[in-house]
Amino acid sequence: MSNHHVAKSQAELAELFRADITTGVGRSVKHDSADKHVSGEATYVDDRLEFPNQLHVYARMSDRAHARIISIDTSPCYAIPGVAIAITAEDVPGQLDIGPVVAGDPLLADGKVEYVGQVVLAVGANSLETARKAAMAATIEYEDLEPVLNVVDALRKKHFVLDSHQHKIGNSSAELATAPRRLQGSLHIGGQEHFYLETQISSVMPTEDGGMIVYTSTQNATEVQKLVAEVLGVPMHKIVIDMRRMGGGFGGKETQAAGPACLCAVIAHLTGRPTKMRLPRVEDMQMTGKRHPFYVEYDVGFDDNGLLHGIEIELAGNCGYSPDLSGSIVDRAMFHSDNAYFLGNATINGHRCKTNTASNTAYRGFGGPQGMVAIEEIMDAIARSLGKDPLEVRKTNYYGKTERNVTHYHQTVEHNVIHEMTAELEASSDYAKRREEIRAFNAKSPVLKKGLALTPVKFGISFTATFLNQAGALIHIYTDGSIHLNHGGTEMGQGLNTKVAQIVAEVLQVDISRIQITATNTDKVPNTSPTAASSGTDLNGKAAQNAAETLKQRLVDFLVREYKVTPEDVEFRNSQVRVRDLFLSFEEVIQKAYFGQVSLSSTG
Ligand code: QUE
After folding, report:
1. Which of 229, 300, 546, 596 could form a disulfide with 604 if both were Cys (CB 3.0 to 4.6 A apart)?
2. Which of 255, 334, 352, 366 to mutate to test the pocket of ligand 1 (most atoms within 8 A of CB)?
3. Of all protein residues, whose CA lies closest to atom 12 belonging to ligand 1?
């Protein structure tokens, strides 16, 4: 027998039991992949061993912003050696649309193109270069149509992907008419490319009975599973999504990882061969959406102290050509257009403008930052017009603790600590002194100027589509006491897996090294929500906690029966279990429970 099977003495076990706990919740644990990230051993989809006979997929993109497709001829593609297939919209066996919430995103252009970068056809070939050459050899005839490229044009023409929404409290127009002071203005807020280091990528292996296993870089495994099933016209149970880690997501892989996965799946389905599609950076940046740029118009009434009396804000999100998640994104911009301020009498309108550009999508903050930038610009404009320090205007308008505490969407703000936080930060940052120094510097410096801001943030976490606020986890304990952990969240570098493992370590009172973190996989944990909305740890961590508590309760019940003690006599700590005055190692308890026919696997 090897050493680790030699039983420790009761004294040794008791000492271990009482030692300091080093992993678990609230302790500093390094990212489970930190060493592999640094050494380059962490595997991403493109690092997986390739399947024999694999096809590389390349998509030919539209070079027109808005056009009717008159004809597509793919026969020149087949003249290039190594080409297996060239597909267009007609070749998709199931549903063509891959819109995440409402239709509007055809997998392949269907009779028209609506932005430069839209996928018109895709080729599967022996190499990426051959696939690219073949895709570019196809001939596409277009009839150009008038594009809408500018968000202001779209707003004026009411060219929208979805209906506008309004939040209203009090009577803003009456207050604007009577307020001592009034300002009107507008601003543009720019977009951003996600620039995840790993571009969109999927690899698909056909399996038995028309099934597929899809290795993909996605924040939203279940949605990719559902969309792959829909484009193939098969039930979801045929499709397995496996996602070990992303090389960055930032929202860019919440809905828009599905396109490459679905193209790979369709070509795998039609050819019976494994496929892989990795977007070159240039194509990724053209094909996929970014943060929504916003155009904002405001009309604000206030008094000589800068206190708001009434406000009207028009938020126009540039959604690109299709809805994607824009409904929820513009809603969130509206929900954050108060930031930390009591707006009083307010009317906020949110518009989902349609332009002939890539479909803009989730991006860290999900519209929230755009709403906050708008009201912060308004605070600065008021301060400038009054010649006041902008921090004074901000503080004047903060939500109150017991009054002036209802938002424009009629929610009462509770647990408000912004006054104390600001006072602490003003003191600890030496705000007043620095403001004076900057004033003096700027007075003497005609070109170079310095600035200073102290800006609050109120942010609403979790999904506004509340059914998404759920999660699942699966834990197995094997007979050697090692633990397999799986949950519905996805790792994109943020350390989610480490945090969820810490929660399980805390519940079972074991060292985190005992817990093996595994790839997000739809046949282990089904029906997952996207890892998004600042909720990955809260939702998946709670599911894992629930699964671990179920297992722990089974072990306690077993020990109570086995040793004829009470539940209060059983204590888990530091990979040890105390049963009244007997100390057992965690492995011993698991061994005994296994022989006692206790189930050592649980969902949460
Ligand atoms: C952040 C969010 C939300 C989000 C994604 C984020 C959010 C929300 C949705 C959403 C809504 C409907 C769907 C869907 C996602 O996504 O609030 O898939 O069908 O409602 O990154 O705050």
Report:
1. 546
2. 366
3. 465
